[in-house]
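Case study B.
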Amino acid sequence: MAKAKFIGDLKAGMELAGEPFLLHDVVRRQSKDGRPFLLTTLRDRTGQISGVFWDVPLAVDVWARPGLGVLVSGRVTTYKDAIQVNISDLNRANGIDLTDFLPASRRSRAEMLAELRDHVAALAEPWQSLVAYILLEGELAERFAAAPAARSMHHAYVGGLLEHTVSMAALARHLARHYDYVNMDLLLSGALLHDVGKALEYSLGEGFAPSDDGRLVGHIVRGVVLIEHAAAGLDFPEDALQQLVHLIVSHHGTQEWGSPVAPKTLEAVLLHQIDLLDSRIGGFLDHVGNDGGAGAWTTKRSDMFGVELRRPPGFDRYARPNNQE
Amino acid sequence: MAKAKFIGDLKAGMELAGEPFLLHDVVRRQSKDGRPFLLTTLRDRTGQISGVFWDVPLAVDVWARPGLGVLVSGRVTTYKDAIQVNISDLNRANGIDLTDFLPASRRSRAEMLAELRDHVAALAEPWQSLVAYILLEGELAERFAAAPAARSMHHAYVGGLLEHTVSMAALARHLARHYDYVNMDLLLSGALLHDVGKALEYSLGEGFAPSDDGRLVGHIVRGVVLIEHAAAGLDFPEDALQQLVHLIVSHHGTQEWGSPVAPKTLEAVLLHQIDLLDSRIGGFLDHVGNDGGAGAWTTKRSDMFGVELRRPPGFDRYARPNNQE
Amino acid sequence: MAKAKFIGDLKAGMELAGEPFLLHDVVRRQSKDGRPFLLTTLRDRTGQISGVFWDVPLAVDVWARPGLGVLVSGRVTTYKDAIQVNISDLNRANGIDLTDFLPASRRSRAEMLAELRDHVAALAEPWQSLVAYILLEGELAERFAAAPAARSMHHAYVGGLLEHTVSMAALARHLARHYDYVNMDLLLSGALLHDVGKALEYSLGEGFAPSDDGRLVGHIVRGVVLIEHAAAGLDFPEDALQQLVHLIVSHHGTQEWGSPVAPKTLEAVLLHQIDLLDSRIGGFLDHVGNDGGAGAWTTKRSDMFGVELRRPPGFDRYARPNNQE
Amino acid sequence: MAKAKFIGDLKAGMELAGEPFLLHDVVRRQSKDGRPFLLTTLRDRTGQISGVFWDVPLAVDVWARPGLGVLVSGRVTTYKDAIQVNISDLNRANGIDLTDFLPASRRSRAEMLAELRDHVAALAEPWQSLVAYILLEGELAERFAAAPAARSMHHAYVGGLLEHTVSMAALARHLARHYDYVNMDLLLSGALLHDVGKALEYSLGEGFAPSDDGRLVGHIVRGVVLIEHAAAGLDFPEDALQQLVHLIVSHHGTQEWGSPVAPKTLEAVLLHQIDLLDSRIGGFLDHVGNDGGAGAWTTKRSDMFGVELRRPPGFDRYARPNNQE
Amino acid sequence: MAKAKFIGDLKAGMELAGEPFLLHDVVRRQSKDGRPFLLTTLRDRTGQISGVFWDVPLAVDVWARPGLGVLVSGRVTTYKDAIQVNISDLNRANGIDLTDFLPASRRSRAEMLAELRDHVAALAEPWQSLVAYILLEGELAERFAAAPAARSMHHAYVGGLLEHTVSMAALARHLARHYDYVNMDLLLSGALLHDVGKALEYSLGEGFAPSDDGRLVGHIVRGVVLIEHAAAGLDFPEDALQQLVHLIVSHHGTQEWGSPVAPKTLEAVLLHQIDLLDSRIGGFLDHVGNDGGAGAWTTKRSDMFGVELRRPPGFDRYARPNNQE
Amino acid sequence: MAKAKFIGDLKAGMELAGEPFLLHDVVRRQSKDGRPFLLTTLRDRTGQISGVFWDVPLAVDVWARPGLGVLVSGRVTTYKDAIQVNISDLNRANGIDLTDFLPASRRSRAEMLAELRDHVAALAEPWQSLVAYILLEGELAERFAAAPAARSMHHAYVGGLLEHTVSMAALARHLARHYDYVNMDLLLSGALLHDVGKALEYSLGEGFAPSDDGRLVGHIVRGVVLIEHAAAGLDFPEDALQQLVHLIVSHHGTQEWGSPVAPKTLEAVLLHQIDLLDSRIGGFLDHVGNDGGAGAWTTKRSDMFGVELRRPPGFDRYARPNNQE
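Model:
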């Protein structure tokens, strides 16, 4: 059941035999004469494609719902300027590596983890121990490395949280030198941990659906609880902990945006600005990359910006990003 | 240094000899010919009064600032329809019972604690153990019983948090019967614990000034951390804990009002409504009680309601409230 | 033309012969080869179901529009997890009892009216005469008993206004004892009359479409005019009338929510809070009940709360509510 | 007790002997050595002036409060670029014509009433009878002619409501010709009656303080009740009445601005726009006229516009306006 | 390729042979058996109609996109209460007069231009030269006369900007007489030039799509640049220019509505109010005219007003408007 | 009239003889016995101090108003923890270097100009010529180097605009490398020119009072006009100009914050974020520096952040900043 053909490589005329995809969306339709069919959206980490399944067996119809891994057989056909899959068989996939199914960061995970370790190594103690325990050593480390940074707005792909985190860490280190009075260790720890609660906010097994913890507690409060718990085990100094917790709690900037308290320290203000900056740029490039059109402007409005965006000259949606320092 | 004369009982002509008060506010002024004087506001639990101190000794001038306990000597004078204190001597007070200095609930603490115990006793396990541990037995219990529910908006007096909590608990028990499908234990636990973080949000020693924890973390997140910590010690079931944390996190109702997530369960919606109801009624009666005027309408706008309020017929600002069941 | 089969009882394979329903929605579609068909939504008080009508006679096509009573012949078929009606004949229904067609309160009207009379009987004079005249004796009484409390948000069904009113009246009586200084007669009269203008706001004959009066005048102003008119006939004391009118005018709480003046008396603040509480709980349960899904969370966002809601354990959408005291 | 000297004519050195003014504001102050004094603001229809009263007799001190008519004796002194009154005696005035005390329209009332009658005469029946009954013949007519249009924002002076009304009526007649499909009688009746409830909203005897009716019911709802009552006596057609009531109810334009329903007819949209236009221009000129400065820009921000305003070249705050057609 | 048959005149059974239309919208669909078809919306200045194109040649499919002129062959068929075009051939149209394709003002352009010239002639120098240069003589004049005033909200048709401008100019002249202190030349120049930047904001060749300049610069800033440029060539007095630029910059009234500075002069406040008034009335009539329904109320909510609107009695969507003086 | 003693160096007991200051604020007061006095705030670039002037000569009283340069004679006295000036003579200062009077950047102008030139030199053509012409060579260059970046929020001191600009330019160069697809020349030009209109927005001669151009046109629109004018003289490519103008027009981010269009290109989004970041950090440090208190928290709320801020450990309000790279 290993992945053989990626959506980015499909061409009309290809045959698929039990190829794994994520069933991102599925809608039941009925034709006039009563023939049921399924309209599906299939995804892997390279993109998404439509699929039509006529004469669906009842068994399939019972289990098919968004967020599952599936094995697809059928033929790639072309219609107008788009290709689609005419599905002849659909089975549920189990025990597969989800990162092949979900849209994923175009940066290599190994490279990003190396950057993460470098940022952690730059911290003085006791900061280094705390951050390393949470992000590199603890039981959360793996989920952290795979999680998206958001469900749809920005960095909404496998590894997106890690990509967003290391980009912010690099910015934090630069800005701590650019401005006076900045406590570099505090700011960098805040940048590395600010979204750690997001490791528990989405359920990758269901296509980034919000988890119960994400719905009921939210990543800000969950992040604080995780950090308080880790700090208790490490005898982390209380005053520094309070400062760090303040950065987590306030990083959305205002109550309207979900922070129960506003930033009140220099590092908290900086962290909020860095987060805003990196998520806005991420959201800009994601929207341009996901928009199907080919003109100078995106065909759809960005939800984040409320307007249509202008594609940067030379933009290539499949190129590897280059946002390391 | 025990309290002998309360502000509610002062009359023109009385002499004060080292009487303890809270120095709620102090402003330095200089007369035209260079004589410095202090304009002060003195408070005890029965109200507040202005005081003027001419020819202030330099020593006094150095330490006098809002939020301290002071011992006042002088004479009560009358001017127009108001009395004031002409201060002849002012000393710092130490080691005194702050509850004599701050505005305090007009309900007796013993009575409210009895109600609190009754509400806790009404809980099934494991809820009862958790709530009892936090509110009755732990190191926080005493601070909880003395804290105000807010700095200014409603129940802004010693014991206000307890008064607000037992009123809400009584409402929660009634509404859990009035509506279907309500989990009484969950709702009542949420009502009892929803503001527990406020026990650490204000500094009574400085006239309800916000503490560092209140400024940097806030009572919602602090409350969750306290509950998670207590639950960890008691092996509280994870699912019930998540539901309870949701009630704490969402009880302000919207992000604009400081809740990082919105209420999403029946009990969370109810708790927010009960909190809104009890704080609005509390804020109404506090504003009417604090407004100096005597007409049918308050002379000042309520910050909470944005309008002047109509005094309820028969309203007596010194009467003991009767909001127990 | 009496109602024989209710939607809640339909099963695949049943035949319908001139069964009355409300034609809640109707859309015209055309197939590729030019065959017109109608997609309809049929409603009765137990729920709603889709219906498809092929080969529609021109005569039907002319009169069919949302909000009419219709007589349906055809067969109940099953497709996937849903049943639908394949319509073979459709006629306009006249002179039928609309309450069989519209979603209706699951509480019995007789029971609710008994509660209403009990609440009115609890009022002292002159309040009792005024409220009784408007709600029990006058020409409005019947419309009041049948009206919904809203078009979609909460208690949006036949008898919903009555159900909301008696629930609020019970809460008002409880809260008038819970808090000091509350004028019970004023508050209870306000609770009973606050939405009386809604008896004229919707047109039941058109599926709760807003009436001209609802669109142009609105239930708040219409309610005041009705009360002022009744009071003029009863020589109701002017001062008490002004207080009561204030409760009607301000019960939405703020101008943003449609009240031309904000609540300024204790009873007006209480009434607004009770209304908010009861409509939020009603809206929560309505949304959970109307959501088609079966998981722990509703599949759709609630318009009222802006989020998906968690179904209360044990929730049964067909059970009779139990919100009497 | 007739008015002899107006504020607009006062000059340093003049003596006042029992001259009537409105006591617009009064603040009690105490000097360092305990001498009480009153700082007052005196008003008549031509403007306002400060007054200082040293060695106030106790009797005066008891009754003096804002909103009373007073008889002032003393001397006009000059200090810097402003004159003030050094008060030597102050007595309560009774039975005097309040219009001499309050700021008043600079247009003559007779002239404005003539315009009002002309506008009413332009109406066809049954509109003419209804409007004439309410504004010209009924018991409200006199209050209508004297009332201000607002407490502070625009036309906040005696006769301001009348001035605003006739200006709007003239605009309504012009715009009904400028645009198609406008029902002139409906629009003009709405313009004439839209603020009729304001005749009861302020208490002239207390310096435009809001009346109980203004606070509890508000001019929009009161206006509708007045019109419904008058219409009932005149057998006014129900449909036209509903249209007219819609104009009253919606003339603030949105719920945020206090209209329980939004404008939904062409005439309602027009009326709201005319009201907005005339009150904005009135508010602009009032702010410029009331601002004490002499530069190109007002020294204070306008509450209505949120910015400082530029004085129109040639602006003369004492000239009679010329906004008739 | 001249226009022979207008949509307003089409009847079932007519044959079209290469008739020019604007291809306003085009959607590709595929039938169950794989037959592709195009669903189109065709427009000319008299309205819009749906068109279906079966068995689309590949060549057509490549170029067809919204905003092009097309030549349509086919037959008008009738289905239910609507007519549509069954397209048999579709070709791209070049070199045609776009004003026949787009919805257009129902007022004659010659008549509106005569009014425009009359308004310009009413200006004193140097205003007259500046306005005449920009609107009548310069290279922009033709685009100004054809542009719409908005993409969808109001006056969204060819000539709409001119129609809106002359209506506002007439109102400006009237209001400059109605109120005191108004500089007629300044206000009238502002009314004539306030939206001049809109001549460059939309691309008529693409069905009012926003131009790059409209997206990146916007009509307010573009308008100022155009006026500053023209003024530089005419030695227009600096002070008057600054006043005029203020009117352009502030005419949306607030920053929320897109004006970088708020109105601060009497003329700027007036201009904003006139613009609001005329665009609201225009938007009201446009919505009523575009709504397909036939009842007393529009079937759709107006985006501008947020509610359904009541059709004025006697409203005729095809009649020529009469909003000249 | 050269500056001899700076406020930062004043000590009790010093004598001032015709020392130049900015008269930042002046209030007239009258003592009980009629003695007029002036309360003043004096400023120079090192800070501000209060001054009291008894027995003011009439001549002085006539001309004294905020925003003038003055020559002060008198003695520095000490009262409590603050020093003040007892003024014995006050004269108007003419022909003096204003930068000695106003609060000024603590960075040296020469150093900042060197950085500015370095940033300009980093630009490719044609960007370099355009930016150099406007900021370094043209008639605006000197005003640009002296202007504040705002009236009160951030960088509100002489040279503040330059300090803010070079800080942003350094950030822009860093971020153009951090993210992909960024046009470095466009972004850096935008950073350097984004606030160029502010060179005309404030009147330094009146203590940063807004100029007529600032009030009526605003710095965004004025900046665009300046750039368009310069570009016309340099034959700057039209397309690049449109991109640059977009950056200026949109740099406030939303209409609510004063940008008539929202950012729609990658560089516009980045520029807005950089501006937000640098002004927030500037505003944080300014507020902490201006707050008189000495505790861990500022005594006053920051207008920019809406809360009290925590002083960074080691913060020194007189130290030279170090925000160059």
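Chains C and F do not touch (no CB pair under 8 Å). The remaining cases will be described in the next quarterly update.
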